[in-house]
């Protein structure tokens, strides 16, 4: 298990209290689980992703991540419509562990309300939350 | 009050290897290493894995009154048990509830060892002592018994998988004689140098061990009981000797998924404070051929035969690797949505998959072309009625549901019961 100081938390992403990350480009947000979440879950063996076209409100459950140890729900950090899902996760769910911010992304959504991004944490605030 | 977490002699080893650690039964134990729980699980099926099981407890029960005491306190009929053999069963209270499950080892007619779960040595030793006192009150002919709790005074390492004997062979003094005639649930040697049996199995450096052909994975292998100050050296020498076989250190995560696929219970989770009857381990009860009575009297027997407050524990297998959490928050529903009970264990055996509806293992012979073991969830449910094998059920944890079927077995082609000669290097 990683120490909090060892976590990889990129500066350019936003973080939710449920340990998802959000990367924004234009009006599209890419969402995945962060290094802390993947480390806590252990080896991911299955990712249940939504379908393109599904819409979610902020904090809606949009899928699940199963590790050998546990099943964990995924909560949508901001509202939007799914425009892409990471199909590679079906055959290689371990990408969530190996590359949580690159190859292990889970879905991309068209952001419904950009002001909701302000409700998310930056790296420093998320780090403080983890330290409790 | 602060309780200190206990450690095994291998704690530093686990931590220095970056193991993901957790409290299990009051001990700081590895859940998995960097290898990952899936690779650890698969290594045991394909070659061999080693497990630190020094958190388990052993109680020595010696003296002329040892056998009658254990006959009364353990569910197996121990009268036919030969020297050098061991059996699995349970220690019950008067309600027929499980205090702990336990393997009884017979050294001699008046010398036994009872191997129980983490943190249970003191409780089981105390239970045996109080039952002895009760017996002695009414029967002044009952022989004396010396009960010694070896908790934290004895180390244990399990090596499991088809290459276990080949890996141990170069570490043992006279391996050919040791592996000769060593059936499932037999053992040789002793961990105490002062015991005459200690000469039965020694490591090359002279360290005596108790080598037991048993385990908790359903696969061929051994449990090794050894004095605590020799555990780390044994562990490291197994890893070195096992290098050509890609032996892997395994944590409790792989131990749990392997045992679930092998339909073995976890004490205090699959067997516990409810009646020890109507479950997949009926061989652990001394059932008479009529199935309605027992061949010996024992503590809890009358409660077990009373049909009141009885549950049914059944193994299940899912459709794929998806699982629900274990525990009372996960319910068992029938096809009409009626709640029948709770999920005791739900784990995923990553070495198996379905092909045309049949479960196959990566170790199954003649695997069909294109077969891929994606994993299947499995475990135990506890319900309020008997259910036939093949009954479809739904397991529900909050909003999550998975479809499962009642089964009689899960991972096929396990190796635990095969002849030892199938797994020996013919050159020794």
Automatic annotation (TrEMBL), chain A:
**Named cofactor requirement(s):** (R)-lipoate
User: What is one term from the GO cellular component aspect held by the record?
Assistant: glycine cleavage complex
Q: Which organism is it from?
A: Desulfocicer vacuolatum DSM 3385
Family affiliation: Belongs to the GcvH family.
Q: Does the keyword Oxidoreductase apply?
A: no
Which InterPro entries would you find in this protein's record? 2-oxoA_DH_lipoyl-BS, Biotin_lipoyl, GCV_H, GCV_H/Fam206, GCV_H_sub, Single_hybrid_motif
UniProt-recorded name of the protein: Glycine cleavage system H protein
UniProt entry keywords in alphabetical sequence: Lipoyl
Where does the record place the modification N6-lipoyllysine?
69
Assembly: The glycine cleavage system is composed of four proteins: P, T, L and H.
Residue ranges of domain Lipoyl-binding in the record? 28-110
Which gene is transcribed and translated to give this protein?
gcvH
PANTHER family xrefs: GLYCINE CLEAVAGE SYSTEM H PROTEIN (PTHR11715), GLYCINE CLEAVAGE SYSTEM H PROTEIN-RELATED (PTHR11715:SF3)
Superkingdom, taxonomy of origin: Bacteria
Q: How cofactor binds (record note)?
A: Binds 1 lipoyl cofactor covalently.
The record ties this protein, via HAMAP family, to: GcvH
Known Pfam families for this protein? Answer: GCV_H
State the protein's purpose. The glycine cleavage system catalyzes the degradation of glycine. The H protein shuttles the methylamine group of glycine from the P protein to the T protein.
User: Which Gene Ontology BP terms does the record give?
Assistant: glycine decarboxylation via glycine cleavage system; protein lipoylation
- Answer whether the UniProt record assigns the keyword Transmembrane helix to this protein: no
Automatic annotation (TrEMBL), chain B:
| InterPro entries according to UniProt | GcvT/YgfZ/DmdA, GCVT_N, TrmE/GcvT-like
Extract one GO molecular function annotation from the record.
Answer: methyltransferase activity
Q: Which residues form the GCVT N-terminal domain?
A: 11-271
Q: Which UniProt keywords apply?
A: Methyltransferase, Transferase
Asked whether the keyword Nucleotide-binding is assigned, the reply is no
**What's an example Gene Ontology biological process for this entry?**
methylation
A Pfam family the protein falls into: GCV_T
From which lineage does this chain's organism come? Answer: Bacteria, Pseudomonadati, Thermodesulfobacteriota, Desulfobacteria, Desulfobacterales
Q: Which domain of life is it from?
A: Bacteria
GO cellular component annotations, sorted alphabetically? Answer: cytosol
**Name this protein carries in UniProt:** Aminomethyltransferase
